[in-house]
Specification:
single chain; 1105 residues; mainly beta; Cathepsin B, Chain A; Jelly Rolls; Immunoglobulin-like; 9-stranded mixed sheet; 6-stranded antiparallel sheet; 7 helices; 47% strand
């Protein structure tokens, strides 16, 4: 057997030591507990295979976020404190489990798993659920305690798979040092391990030969499960307390502490560490040294940290009445290794009436193809094939660790029946099949593993059909079952056995079936022994009907019962008053009404009324309250069963009446008068009064009663007491007209012109009639209508008056002038002459004209002083001062004897803009002619200019041409493309005129285009009689206008272009000729001739062929 099966024992890490950690903030007492250091090289080696293809790994890396935190996602539970114990591994394992369960919606965020339970039963095995492993023990032999004893990282997954995880409230960490658990305690778990996977033994390994980085695999596991279990070597001098991070630059290959990795940041700066690593990036670590360590219990670890390793991902599921058949009871990390196909079997005996085998778990340290078979009804427990094969399925395990393999079909297992789980592993020399196993091992100095093989059936197939029982090894092959045996209801209980109810209320009884996993029909029947007293519905809701007693009975489907005695009463529940608080004047009364609930109570409805102080307020037996004197008293009503209600009575002496010394008052605006208020009785101390005006725009009043007239009209001045008594005085305010003003003091009008005057009555809010009467002193000079509109009739002076309804008067002097304003332009429109005719100058000193063009707004406005010529005023306007065409405005002002500018009249004149029409015609030889026709304004033109440019290269060839006058109103420009770099195609041109007045204007037809082409002529060939020479002639072309010379490209079609030759044409008259010798081409058949022009810049331009 030893020759066939090689058993390798993985050396175990077991450490415990308490080491203070420096740089910890003083949030709480913190002590870092680590394990004795252990070298990675002394741990068992694993070949980290993967079934993931290179392409899928590349895709995963490409999709990996640069940073991630399960803490921010809300998946991570609170930081715990292991102090003073050395069980960091239990805290890390429970944290990984909690995060996985929260992330996968298998638990709420307040989940708290028991580190104490995991720690205790790892070193104090009490046996599995079926008592197959009761005598297997992991024993500490060096005198250390289990709560200070460390553990090898690969032992953690075995402990989790052996019994799972319990709740913290059942096994709190504070009791870890005093636990004395039982077999039932060990199996009282809430969650079970399904899968564990060793991602890598070290995340980052580097030496002179190779660098290995499993960072992406770790990140993928965190994204999938929320966190991973990991270990590292914590040495105080490499921890940076200020920045809460850790990095040891010495390529550490030891470990002494277990933690949880919950995230990462690729951009975490390398400069943050005490010793600078080779790159940015760090892992986010959750520790178990309390929130006083690091950043609330978390710290960062560099990607380059070489001691970070033994990274495991764990997956869990609820226990849910699931149990496990197993023979492996210790945490020994041994394994078998085979380089060929080998078949193993564990045979178990059913312990329950009926169970459903739903999955198996398989401990493997390699990714190996397997075949799984299930046999039931074995006649020989040492030969699986003596049973019936009921299932066969194949696959490749996904984990280096615990593999949870669901069966394709569920298998029924019966009590006392033997069934076999048979696994065939296909090992090879390159990929040994490594099956994890349990084994007695007692040579270590600190921990021994003791296995009891007496009740086990672990088998290996030596050859086809030949099985041998193994008596010194237990295979980590487990059967996962669900108990499907029928469970009868043993009893039923109620949450209450006695219930007192008042009529009008209800209560629902809660029934509990025992045991809670009973498989009987769980239907319940509810009955009342007297439904006339109390009824019950089929949900257990009890409703009282009348006074009395009865029993409520609940009955299960198999006849189990529970009862509750119900007593029904109809007492007075409460009494209420219609008024809770009231103010009364002395001698006033109020009737209180009391209401009893329920109204149909069987209690006596007699009421007792009382006053806390009858000298203030008294109450009779019917609830009538009478106010006696000032003060506060409480009226209380009491029922026959002691229920009470109260009303607070406050007795006051209030004002009864208030009067004013005047009921009416008339004031002029701004006048004041004080009103006097008188209250009865005059000795009240509880009331006061306030003054107000119903219209403050008419009159206001202050709180002493002083009334101020504000504006015309009528209003009421009101005095109001705090208890609502009111008196009023009617106030009338009058406001007479004091004056009238006109908006101007004098007006100069031209004959026939009008202007409307505005009269303003003062004050504006007068109460007099606002009527104005207008009048002219001389209607022959000026008239005025009822609206104040004044019209000049004849030259002269008149006075206009405005009279109010109370005969207030204002007046204004009107001067009527005679005028004619004229404008004349010279022939070339360079000057405008302005003349104001026949002016009576007695009323003013001088005259000025404001002149501007409408096109420019008033940016060219100029003032011109007029000179006197007889009875006229004259000035000249130089158009050069304004530099634009179009309409001009002329406004005429006189300067009166006080120096004021008085507007008289206005007129306009036009400076014509020449209407330039343009067109172009092609006249050959690379030339075109631009025609310009002037429709009007030709006399004002000094010169015409035409800018011309080709569409090539922007305006780099632009030339301004001066147009030649061919006849009156007609100009032209001739353009030769030679002056424009020989460009042919489209040309743009525009027209601009400089007027004799200096004004520069553009044509309305600007941005025109002309197209210039050339005559290519005809290309002909002449083959001589002996076909030794060919004459090529380009005839009738005007190409010389844009090009230097002509070249012909000649080749035979038979040879492709391998005989292509260029021939320069000579000019003979108007033709371009070249002779081609056939000897240069040496073949017969069709020849191609292509004609090119060499332009002025040396470019080859294709013409024809």
């Amino acid at each position: 057997m030893k020759r066939i099966i090689r058993t390798l024992l993985a050396f175990m890490l077991s450490f415990s030591m308490i080491v203070p950690i420096t740089g910890v903030s003083a949030k709480e007492e913190t002590q870092g507990s680590v394990m004795p250091r252990r070298q990675y090289e002394n741990m068992d080696d694993v070949n980290f295979q993967t079934s993931t293809s290179f392409k899928s790994r590349a895709r995963a890396r490409a999709a990996m976020p640069s940073s991630y935190s399960s803490v921010e996602q809300g998946y991570v539970t609170s930081v715990k404190n292991q102090n003073p114990n050395g069980n960091c591994w239990a805290f890390a394992a429970c944290s990984v489990a909690e995060t996985y369960l929260i992330k996968n919606n298998l638990a709420t965020k307040d989940i708290d798993l028991s580190e104490a339970h995991l720690n205790y039963f790892t070193y104090n095995n009490k046996g599995d659920f079926y008592n197959n492993t009761n005598n297997d023990q992991t024993v500490i032999v060096n005198g250390e305690t289990y709560y200070d004893k460390g553990i090898a990282p690969n032992m953690v997954q075995i402990a989790l798979s052996n019994f799972g995880l319990a709740d913290e409230e059942d096994y709190p960490i504070k009791n870890v040092q005093t636990m004395n658990g039982t077999h039932d305690d060990q199996n009282n778990t809430t969650y079970r391990l399904t899968n564990s996977n060793l991602i890598c033994d070290r995340v980052y390994k580097t030496d002179e030969k190779i660098t290995v980085d499993y960072g992406d695999k770790v990140k993928q596991a965190i994204l999938k499960n929320g966190s991973v279990f990991a270990t590292y070597d914590h040495l105080n001098n490499y921890y940076n307390g200020q920045n809460s991070n850790y990095y040891n630059p010495n390529h550490d290959v030891w470990l002494n502490h277990a933690v949880t990795i919950v995230g990462w940041d690729d951009n975490y700066s390398a400069s943050n560490f005490s010793y600078t690593p080779s790159r940015n990036g760090a892992w986010l670590i959750k520790n178990s040294w309390g929130t006083g360590f690091g950043n609330d219990g978390y710290f960062w670890m560099s990607y380059d940290e070489s001691s970070l390793g033994y990274v495991y991902s764990f997956e869990f599921a609820p226990r849910d009445n699931i149990n496990t058949y197993q023979y492996d009871g210790t945490e020994n990390t041994s394994y078998t290794m085979a380089s060929f196909t080998r078949t193993y079997a564990n045979v178990f005996q059913g312990k329950k009436d009926v169970e459903s085998l739903e999955a198996i778990t398989l401990g493997l340290r390699s990714l190996t193809p397997y075949t799984l078979k299930i046999y039931t009804g074995l006649t020989n427990p040492n030969d699986p094939t003596t049973g019936t094969e009921v299932l066969s399925q194949s696959g490749i395990n996904e984990n280096i660790g615990n593999n949870y393999i669901s069966l394709n079909e569920k298998v029924s297992i019966h009590k006392d029946e033997y069934y076999a789980i048979v696994i065939t592993l296909e090992g090879t020399t390159k990929n040994n099949a490594q099956l994890m196993c349990d084994q007695t091992y007692t040579t270590a100095k600190d921990i021994h593993f003791i296995c009891d093989f007496s009740n086990e059936h672990c088998l290996v197939e030596l050859s086809h059909g030949t099985w041998s029982k193994v008596d010194n090894v237990t295979y980590r092959i487990k059967g996962v079952v669900k108990d499907t045996s029928p469970v009868s209801i043993s009893s039923v209980s109620l949450n209450k056995t006695k219930l007192d109810l008042n009529i009008g209320t209800t209560e629902t009884l809660q029934a509990t079936i025992h045991p809670d996993n009973a498989t009987d029909n769980r239907k319940l029947t509810w009955e009342s022994t007297n439904p006339s007293i109390a009824t019950v519905d089929q949900n257990g809701k009890v409703t009282p009907i009348k006074e009395g007693s009865c029993e409520i009975t609940v009955t299960t489907s198999n006849g189990k019962t529970a009862t509750c005695q119900v007593n029904v009463t109809l007492h007075i529940n409460s009494v209420t008053l219609n008024i809770n608080k009231k103010e009364l004047d002395v001698k006033d009364t109020v009737q209180l009404q009391a209401t009893i609930d329920p109204s149909n109570t069987t209690d006596s409805k007699q009421l007792i009324w009382e006053s806390s102080d009858p000298t203030i307020a008294k109450v009779d037996n019917a609830g009538k309250v009478t106010a006696v004197s000032e003060g506060v008293a409480t009226i209380t009503v009491t029922t026959s069963n002691g229920k009470q209600a109260t009303c607070q009575i406050t007795v006051l002496k209030h004002i009864k009446t208030i009067t004013l010394n005047k009921s009416e008052l008339q004031l002029n605006k701004s006048e004041t008068e004080t009103l006097v208020a008188t209250a009865k009785p005059d000795d009240t101390v509880y009331d006061s009064w306030t003054w107000s005006s119903e219209n403050t725009n008419v009159a206001t009043v202050d709180q002493s009663g002083k009334v101020t007239a504000v504006g015309g009209g009528t209003t009421n001045i009101v005095v109001t007491t705090t208890n609502g008594k009111v008196a009023k005085c009617k106030v009338t305010v009058v406001n007479p007209i004091t004056s009238v003003t006109i908006n101007k003091t004098k007006i100069n009008l031209l004959k026939g012109h009008s202007e409307t005057l505005q009269a303003t009555i003062n004050p504006s809010d007068t109460t007099d009639v606002k009527r104005i009467t207008w009048k002219s002193s001389n209607t022959n000079v000026a008239t005025v209508d009822e609206n104040g509109k004044v019209t000049g009739m004849n030259p002269g002076t008149a006075t206009i008056t405005a009279t109010t309804s109370n005969n207030k008067i204002a007046s204004i002097e009107i001067n009527v002038l005679k005028d004619v304003l004229g404008v004349s332009l010279n022939n070339d429109e360079t000057e405008a002459k302005l003349k104001f005719y026949n002016v009576n100058q007695e009323k003013f000193k001088s005259m000025m004209f404001a002149v501007w063009s409408e096109e420019g707004g008033q940016d060219d406005l100029r003032w011109y002083t007029a000179g006197k010529e007889g009875e006229d005023y004259v000035t000249s306007v130089n158009i050069k001062n304004h530099k634009t065409t179009g309409r001009y405005q002329v406004h005429c002002y006189m300067i009166d004897n006080e120096g004021n500018y008085v507007y008289l009249t206005n007129t306009t004149f036009e400076i014509a803009r020449p209407d330039i029409k343009m067109s172009a015609e092609n006249i050959g030889k690379g030339r075109f002619k631009i025609n310009l026709d002037i429709a009007n304004g030709a006399n004002s033109i000094e010169k015409l200019e035409v800018p011309v440019w080709s569409d090539k290269n922007g305006q780099d060839d632009i030339i301004w041409y001066r147009a030649k006058k061919e006849e009156e109103g007609h100009y032209s420009v001739t353009v030769d493309v030679k002056n424009h770099k020989g460009d042919i195609g489209n040309y743009s041109y525009a027209g601009y005129a400089t007027l004799k007045s200096g004004i520069f204007v553009g044509s309305n037809d600007n941005n025109q285009t002309a197209t210039v082409g050339i005559q290519l002529g005809s290309l002909k060939t002449d083959v001589g009689e002996n076909e030794t020479e060919v004459k090529i002639v380009l005839k009738d072309t005007d190409i010389e206008c844009i090009g230097k010379n002509i070249k012909y490209a000649v080749w035979s079609e038979e040879g492709g272009q391998d005989d292509l030759r260029w021939y320069t044409a000579g000019k003979e008259g108007e033709d371009y000729i070249s002779n081609v010798s056939i000897k240069n081409h040496k073949t017969t058949g069709r020849y191609q001739v292509h004609c090119y022009m060499i332009d002025n810049e040396g470019n080859y331009v294709y013409l024809t062929n």
